[in-house]
């Protein structure tokens, strides 16, 4: 039948498409059903400032993708997706005019940090050699494997470096960073970088420090825009006889006799599944669509109590005449060629106050990270022009006026963010800024309904929502109580960001359950 497939995937985000592409390569005929006119979810690119200027509204930094299996297994360059890996990966600028850069070249990085602190430069070298050079493959295996219970993970990482790695799980995020670095400028750089991933500063979250170190020099620019990742995946699905349904909002996951049989859409479209249904949307929404009775009281309660991130982002996108020039470049000249730039704060007290202010629903001091993609890929703007963005932390719901106040005060907040940005980027003059667009927390939710309350990583990163707890221990292996219904979205391990990990891990689980011969060699989990 025309609308009958081996597998049906709910949602057209990148994790859904990764799963569909892998199983297409294994010989299945797949369908992906997406509510929006465009596929990709958080991998979207639009001309929101001026014609010809491309802006990635959600995902921009492809972190560690080249370390993982997906680009290689699916040969995505053949389908039009390519990454650029800038040599100067990170930059930080401070109100006092100082700054530093992190390069793919370790010696260049140490030289730059030494201008801030000789001791911290030595510490950086030690951490980099441990967690980037020696542990990178271990982190890759953890991202592209189902989650392990803490006891088993400790057993698998039982060597000296593994035990040191696991020791961070006993610390809060700030404790893990502060025990290594003495200069506040280094401390806030790493805190901002990790908290941009929706990580909360709570006990047990220190494990994100070695994880981010393993990926610190693996940030890449998606050529031509983030949208090319899902478009490449969709080509694989369609080439294999599958179909991408756009403008089809799934209203119900059909369950017959405790088995998932397909989906029904609000426009009347029905798509049947011969073998399985996978949900790439968030866990709470999946439970509602498949029926709470089918999940049972425990998982229904878990879905109702699922936590969304405590902070969101207010991103200002700019169309520019010329690229950004940083005031701190007089101290560290390489800043003007850095990819991911962090600024807005000089010490931890200011950063804490930022998140306390967000918790009260008030506008904080603007602090965050951003980039000028045209430094590395000129196709993001018309010839000779540039674009840039900065995404400072912000509350979803404002104390005065709620979330709707973002629309009412859009121009005011744009000017506030731009005024702060100008402290660091000295050439953000009226002549240079050709156009601007504020993508607010409520806009995040509007464009991607998985990102409830502007939760850009589809749920908070807290200890009770990570690893085997994401989204709940009873379904952290991507299986659900409903036969033939699987989870493959960012509310499952490994969470948000563009890794493709949830989709990849779910594809392996489904292939194992259905005894499908894999056309790829799965990533090996870390061995004891």
Task: State the helical fraction.
Answer: 25-40%
Number of helix segments? 18
The CATH architecture designation of the largest domain is 3-Layer(bba) Sandwich
End-to-end separation in angstroms reads: 48 Å
CATH class of the largest domain: Alpha Beta
What best-fitting shape do the alpha-carbon axes yield? globular
Describe the structure.
By secondary structure, the protein is α+β, with helices and mostly antiparallel strands. The protein has 3 domains: 4-43 and 226-306 and 459-513, FAD/NAD(P)-binding domain (3-Layer(bba) Sandwich), CATH 3.50.50; 82-104 and 310-456, 2-Layer Sandwich (Guanine Nucleotide Dissociation Inhibitor, domain 2); 107-216, no CATH class. It contains 18 helices and 20 strands. The strands form 4 sheets. Strands 7, 8, 14, 15, 16, 17, 18 and 19 form an 8-stranded mixed β-sheet that branches. Strands 1, 2, 10, 11, 12, 13 and 20 form a 7-stranded mixed β-sheet that branches. Strands 5-9-6 form a 3-stranded antiparallel β-sheet, with no helix packed on it. A hairpin with a 2-residue loop joins β11 (250-256) and β12. The radius of gyration is 22 Å and the shape is globular. The N and C termini lie far apart (48 Å).
